[in-house]
Write a structure and sequence with these properties.
Spore Coat Polysaccharide Biosynthesis Protein SpsA, Chain A, two-stranded antiparallel sheet, 2 domains
Length: 247
Amino acid sequence: MKPKKIKVVGVIPARGGSSGVSNKNLRLFSGKPLIAWSILSALESNLDRVIVCTNDLKIGKVAQKYGAEVITEPHELALGTMGIEPVVRYVYEWLLKKENYKADALALLMATSPSRNKFHINDGIDIFKKSRADSVVGVNQTPANHTPYWTLIRSPKGKVTLFDGAPLKKILTRRQDFPKKCYARNDLIYILKPKNLYDKERIDLYGAKVELYETSTLYEMDINTPDEWSDAEIKFKRLLKNKKKPE
């Protein structure tokens, strides 16, 4: 007996405007609007549907031009103080109420990760299915100086210690001696069960059982400032040229 095919819906949140980079989602990035790259990789993947949720008519038109479905985001969800989780839940509920379409899983695809490839999405879906986790989170290993083991803090009284409060003389001198690997979220992919969004304590992407999808740092991008935009575009052009996949 074949296992039941699960319906995975890709959700690309895209608010209009940006405090760091003006009109970020519509600005040309390597020849295409930034949001177009996320749409194109999603459409090439094994996702069942690709939906852009936006409060901006121009973003909606561009998203449709590149092949995505568009759901209009309510004003209260478009506020800068609102997190991303309510937007994902809104898309799930909209499909359920308007189309009687029940997604088994949701793939959150941030438009600020134009380097995302279809294989990132497909790998994430495969891990989600095989692990039976509540969520799969795209990560890459944290550089040594950014781990808690080598992070310093200053107390209210001005004393500098390690992150856990231990004196600096106890710092590990070699990264090879770290007791555990540390990972940073890279926003390439989040895949989650809809039930995670209905936690009684708080709306949550993760759920109880979380699985990690470790990717190459080649694909990590974070575009929130003009400098980050420039750096990301240089890196992206190099990726396009090399067409390199992770080992």
